[in-house]
């Protein structure tokens, strides 16, 4: 697994606890006096914990962060072992837009302070983990976040209390025996328990967390690495040049992140071994289920790979154990290894949580992650939220919710939810007239970083007002909770809604797909729905979908089947501002959903409409009629006349032309009939 | 826009006509008494009769559907009648209550089946059910795989089977199958199921769609052998099934020696291409095997022929081994070199694809192009994009420079977005303003591109574009709310040079203020100066007035005088304190308005109303202000300046309160050329100017014209207005009241996605069927005619229900066209 991109560890175990034990005994009496409940308790001062603390602090809430280590981000003091983060630190994008730039900044946390951007902490594209530690320290300190360091929470349980927000308090016990009562518990402890697979001989295996990082120690050795994630390849990369060969063994084929669009899969920066394997330089990749495996140690202390099945035959002496090559003399792993290293990722530490919290379901997947809803709230206990890397079950292998550049937004979404639930602060929104709808969407799809990073997980929502004359714009709502939007946000969705999401093409990515195929990009607006690269998708619903509809949505869909859908055609520069290529089709879609005309008009046109029609298009109603019409300049007018969209009355013959009066009156004909032969298409 | 509105219009008309047609056609459904009906029955002839009590309205929908079914059923020799159960003549088919009315199918006078009306929910269901009942032997309904296997083994060597799966009885697909069975039922055994499990068990992956398989059992001689199956790929419609079965009947492989261009087979008539496998004597056997293999693969998609090169008189290029001929007439045959059977197959299939695409293109051509910009602002800004604006005349602010700049000097800031057309159009006016003010203004003209400095704009509470704000030291920023044009913004900036209200300190100064000398340079921007007169002790109302003055700052000049000697002024202008004096500089008049204890908002209102003129020249800029009065407009259209006599007449009428229910105004066509467009909309043939009209904009939209042969005099006008009021004048036109609809449809990506996944079609939407009530059905009629005019895969919300029902508009529309 690839946790150093994002995760934090619940501190190095042991040491503090033993030191504190003595103290705890002395202070036992103190335990009886329980301090008044806090509103919010955050477990862990890693990126997610600090991010939550920031939002709570800004909102002026009563909170505390509990951190085992003496400083924030202790995971990064040890991991990744080889110290290079694989989250990119892009310092330049050629753009000034700070929100846009966060699309390419994978390390910064969200804050109002521009000094707290990671680019001020490292110049490296793949920065050193030490810089992350320094950054997190500064983040906590500069913003004055309320963190209780050196406080190890050893046990968490529930206490029923009618007056509590959720009908119960969370009781946290620290290493001193002190208890803390919390109305809401925010668990941001990351994944800290190395994943171990049990097989005969697993005791000979060294773990990623403890294996030497000094290449010298591997000089001239045969090495077997179990796992095929970034930690496995990172370990291999480090010793590639000094070993005899490295073999890597894993259950399934390697998944390359450039083929899957999932940053948790193998990143190109770590894949040196793939190169040497395919160029026949002795290194190799093998696929097999690790649970069938057994490792036996021979008299020289070398390790042999065999199958569990053979060991069960009863022959226990190491040299007598049947090896696969006895039957099958070209068995791939017939050589003896000097070392076997396990790099199998991490699991959530369930040990401190009382069963009554029902954090785990006991299923196979839930060994790794606690059981949560798409709102990041625990399925087992109300008021318990899981943040950060440990919340990645929501979008595992799909989006970026397990990494800083993803969960900084999901943490904000959780905070917005809490603000409404406990403090009556509705989800922030902007109310605008319909004439601004196209612009509001175009603005967000071009700069929003939350939509971009948490594609298909967080989406913007446009709630239409009665008669669709105005709308509310809500940002970064967890789409899987769409059915519960009204209760979560405190906003009403009675008159239809749009959901603005970013998506990759349905069948584009996958571990075995060729993502460089010819013709992979789509250029025509009418083919926009075939777009492969990340592109904005707008869903229109007449009614808020029900929970059923969200749950049983069509396979491969991020959202339930809408009344209508629009894809904004993919763009090589991710710049969706082309007037004809991007904005015009979007406007037509919105117009047809709202059954109105969303074009903009100069004041003169509105003037004409006002005196020749009983009703006006929204743009004239919301601008011109309020004496805020767009006057325009002479040169624009000339272009309008040339294009046929505006009529030049100064030279016009006053006699009426032939032909019937159109139902929309007047002779203003912006439609095609009067267009000159040349069209925009050719100009473009 | 115009064409689309025409469409709407036409749809409306055709809809109305259709209704008329329906009404009259209901009569064509023969209505008989029971006795009469039974007397018409002929032995061996089928007849569908609906028994009902005299006109119960609840069944009118059913009757409409039944009426529609008359024609198709007659085509199959089945008569349809509505039997009225009158009291005198009861029949056992007449139920006791209205609800129990049923339809019966007779052959001769024997009842074959009875149908509760709800099984016959629409015309498709009626035709499907009736044919299903009549073709009882020809169409076997089965529900298990075993049934199918039994039929299959019984028919081996005897007859082939057309096996179809439909989702339900009574669907359009079921009707299509039944209609096909009517024609082919004697030749082939039709087998029908609605069981998805059965479909699955014969190995169909996509079990959501309707399917038709042809089981080639007739050729099977060995009874242990399975019948070969061919799946029909196009959707189940009568025409497609017909076409499919025709190709099944055609010989699998034909040997020809003539010119491929001259060969004609049934395939070509059915619109399918021909594939010639070129053979030579030497390799004849192998070629024939290949050709047969290809023929099986292409069964139902193309005709396959074996072309003997040696005996052929045609010149076939040496290496060509396949000749491809498209179904369209006049298209040259193609000689191809294809070394793989799959290549031949894909050639045919891709060709089918091309055909479809080309059809799309043709339709696109005929309809307005959705990719052509029809937004005048976007288009003009785009066309102007290459012109370099002297942007340097305004200061570009960034996140770093913004705060220091607006603190250092009074600034006007334009917030815009580089990609947003409206704000870019306004940026041009803003630059024009900068050119005008160059070097003269103390106000700094600045701009922020929110596409770059998004956070800054959010912090300044800018959520839409464009926004103009004025920043003055120590004051909260003020948003500009006037017209987005050079002149109005210039006025705002100029009037903001003075603090409003201006504090006047002496009577002499007050006089100068009132006669315009005090702000000589400004009165061109504000034709009215307002002076508030207060006694020094009137603190509350003074505060309110000050607030109001602040509010109107930038739009009108206000001043305040509250010295001890204020009585000198109040006496002179006959005002009771507190009061407002309005100095209209153009007319040189000074009026006074008493000011009761009004809150600031009311004072603002009083002042804004006072700014309105009695008989203004209406312009693009000031029309909105006058429209707020919500009164009909009395407009005098004038070529150039107004004739003083007309003006005098109008003012007199106004003075005598004859025009209180109207907003009188005049329009100078020289200043406001758009007035030409207005006149063209009002008059079919334009009479000579001047023209006087009353436009009832807010209630009804009628336009009345003052007779152009009458002189515009006070008396004539008064008389005309009286007649107008009494309803004795008829209007010359009524302004259209339509809502502004989308000018063009949008791409219907949902349908395109459905079509692409047509083997995994959209889930059934149960609501759609429920919604098919009477009114919905009317809408359908309307839609049908509209749909044909629009390009494929475009979207209008009102069609969505329908296209859901037909699961992917594309296939549906193809059928439609062919039928």
What is the gist of this entry?
Chain A is α/β, with parallel strands linked by helices and 684 residues long.
Model description:
The complex is a heterodimer of chains A (684) and B (819). Chain A contains 20 helices and 22 strands. In chain A, the strands form five sheets. In chain A, strands 1, 2, 3, 4, 5, 6 and 16 form a seven-stranded mixed sheet that branches. Chain A has a six-stranded antiparallel sheet with strand order 17-19-18-20-21-22. In chain A, helix 2 packs parallel to helix 11. The two termini of chain A are 46 Å apart. With 819 residues, chain B is an alpha/beta fold. In chain B, the strands form seven sheets. Chain B has a five-stranded mixed sheet. In chain B, strands 6-8-7-9-10 form a five-stranded mixed sheet, with helices on both faces. A five-stranded mixed sheet of chain B has the order 11-13-12-14-15. The longest helix of chain B has 27 residues. The relative contact order of chain B is 0.05. The N terminus and C terminus of chain B are likely disordered. The interface between A and B is large, with 108 and 108 residues. Chain A: One of its GO terms (biological process) is ERAD pathway.
List the helices and strands and how they pair.
The complex is a heterodimer of chains A (684) and B (819).
Chain A: H1 15-26, E1 38-43, H2 47-58, E2 63-66, H3 75-78, H4 98-101, H5 129-142, E3 147-148, E4 153-160, E5 168-174, E6 179-187, E7 193-194, E8 206-207, E9 222-226, H6 230-239, E10 245-250, H7 257-260, H8 272-278, E11 284-287, E12 293-297, E13 303-307, H9 308-311, H10 324-327, E14 339-342, E15 346-347, E16 384-386, H11 404-423, E17 429-433, H12 437-447, H13 449-453, E18 458-464, E19 470-478, H14 485-489, E20 497-503, E21 535-541, H15 547-551, E22 564-567, H16 579-594, H17 603-612, H18 618-622, H19 634-643, H20 680-683
Helix pairs in contact in A: 2-11
Chain B: H1 2-28, E1 30-32, H2 34-40, E2 46-53, H3 60-75, E3 79-85, E4 103-107, E5 110-115, H4 123-134, E6 139-141, H5 145-155, E7 161-165, H6 172-184, E8 189-193, H7 196-201, E9 211-216, E10 228-231, H8 238-249, E11 253-256, H9 266-269, E12 274-279, H10 284-297, E13 303-308, E14 322-325, E15 334-336, H11 341-366, H12 376-383, E16 395-396, H13 402-408, E17 411-416, H14 421-437, E18 444-449, H15 454-459, E19 467-471, E20 478-479, H16 486-495, E21 502-503, H17 507-514, E22 528-533, H18 539-551, E23 557-561, H19 566-572, E24 579-584, E25 589-594, H20 600-611, H21 623-627, E26 633-638, H22 644-655, E27 663-668, H23 674-682, E28 691-695, E29 702-705, H24 714-725, E30 733-734, E31 746-747, H25 749-756, H26 766-771, H27 774-787, E32 794-795, H28 800-805, H29 809-818
Parallel strand pairs in B: 1-3, 2-3, 6-8, 7-8, 11-13, 12-13, 16-18, 17-18, 21-23, 22-23, 26-27
Antiparallel strand pairs in B: 2-4, 4-5, 7-9, 9-10, 12-14, 14-15, 17-19, 19-20, 22-24, 24-25, 26-28, 28-29, 29-30, 31-32
Helix pairs in contact in B: 1-27, 3-4, 4-6, 6-8, 12-14, 14-16, 18-20
Protein name (chain B): Thioredoxin domain containing 16
Domain Thioredoxin (chain B): 395-494
Pfam families (chain B): Thioredoxin, Thioredoxin_6, TXNDC16_2nd, TXNDC16_3rd, TXNDC16_N
